[in-house]
Amino acid sequence: MRKDYLSLILLLGLISIAATIDIDNLFLYSELEFPNYIDADNTPEGNPITDEGATLGRVLFYDKQLSLDGTISCSSCHHQEFAFGDTATQSIGMNGNTGRHSMRLVNARFSDESRFFWDERAATLEDQVTMPIQDHIEMGFSGEDGDPDFDSLTTRLSELDYYQVLFPLAFETPEITEEKVQLALAQFIRSIQSFDTSFDEGLAQVNNINNPFPNFSNQENLGKQLYLLPPPDGGAGCAGCHSPPEFSIDPLSLNNGVIGVAGAEGTDLTNTKAPSLRELINPNGVENGPFMHDGSLLSLAEVIDHYNLIPPNPQNTNLDIRLQGPPLNLNNAEKASLEAFLITLSGIEVYTAEQWSDPFDENGNLELIGGTTNVEGTIDSDSKTEVYPNPFQDYFIIESDLERFQVEFYNLNGAMVKRVMASSGERVNSADLPNGVYLLRVSSTNAKVQTVKVMKY
Predict the structure, then answer these.
(1) If DSSP codes are grouped into helix, strand and coil, which group holds residue 58?
(2) Domain boundaries in the chain?
(3) Where residue 78 falls among pLDDT bands split at 50, 70, 90?
(4) Bigger pLDDT: 373 or 455?
(5) CATH number assigned to the domain covering 375-456
(6) pLDDT at 18
(7) Distant-in-sequence contacts of 441-447, Cβ < 8 A, 24+ apart
């Protein structure tokens, strides 16, 4: 049943049906709930998840315009159908392949480890999200060796209609900066969560992770026990580095004995970060891509075999001390039980929820509806109204074939914030308005109406 269900989901994912965002009915990212037993949260005080910010982040995440040649988006390497990971060992960038396997992003928020990338070179998620954009191989706005810099990207984004609405909606001002892109992308990624798993169902029933879960099979409960117990007590000690219930990596972890380089010869000892162990497997029972930074382990069984016996390697001077003991010596039944437990950490919602899906249609188009686009009025298609300059600062001029007219200013929530009378060619003062995007409703005494979108900066 689960296999057929996900197959249908993946089929629907190939049919692009979401190409609009309703400004009046945003997804409630700020109200996403998670279990009360989840304690880890790396959301900084200065960037809480908002509906508007995460909506902007969703568009940025899927927008190929963030790459220099318009072919790559964040989602090109982090696919919803693979728990925001990739089935390729190395993801395809604009100018080649990524240097490491693309890490799954699900539950990135729920970790005591606040650093990002396999080698932890980004101090925060906010720092991390624009680094691929500024990488020559991945998305191309590096500012080096002939590549344009990030300012060129912000100029490009400012010319797109949907960002002229979404940035002011999220941040109240229309200016597009790298910091705003970072804040919005981080909000969206932190919103991607998975807590609809068999593990969560079982923990909610008994409220004690050490007790048998009534919804688990005997094999799954044995696997849970092996996961939790340290090797001296007959377990595999997995919880020592990947603590439940978040199953995130211990911030103090060193490398795990996998020291290869993706797609090349060589040794890399710097990789000490790992994604959450949630959503290793999709509801089809298939791995969400290969494992480890180099993609060298293709299945959960291979991962368990690796930890069951990590041979001494004098080249590895950065091996975590918790992995330097004697072999675990798990037998085949124990390894199968541990794998069965790890599979219980996967759910369904992360693969299906629209709030995390691609908002663009198959041609890369996106339409915003609601908000200022729904200002009431009978539009006279024979009348012509132009506003200049647009964007403007303290004033603008309206040229219209209407003689004397009323100008109403509506904000992005559809509320009228200002009303004046004006004539064609006359300056209209706007110094009292905050910066942002507005819809002007220009109406004459004979009820002719024109609507014009404008921006103050």
Answers:
(1) helix
(2) 1-369, 375-456
(3) very high
(4) 455
(5) 2.60.40.1930
(6) 52
(7) 441/375, 441/377, 441/407, 441/408, 441/410, 442/385, 442/398, 442/400, 442/402, 442/405, 442/406, 442/407, 443/377, 443/405, 443/406, 443/408, 444/383, 444/402, 444/403, 444/404, 444/405, 444/406, 445/404, 447/378
Q: Is the pLDDT of residue 12 over 50?
A: no
Q: Which residues have CB under 8 Å from 443's CB, separation 6+?
A: 377, 405, 406, 408, 449, 450
Domain 1-369 adopts which CATH fold? Answer: Cytochrome Bc1 Complex; Chain D, domain 2 (1.10.760)
242-245 long-range contacts (CB < 8 A, ≥24 apart) are 242/274, 242/277, 244/209, 245/35, 245/37, 245/38, 245/199, 245/200, 245/203, 245/209
pLDDT value for 249: 97
Q: How far is CA 332 from CA 148, 207, 217, 304, in A?
A: 54, 30, 17, 10
**Is residue 252 predicted with pLDDT exceeding 70?**
yes
Per-residue confidence band for 70, with pLDDT thresholds at 50, 70 and 90: very high
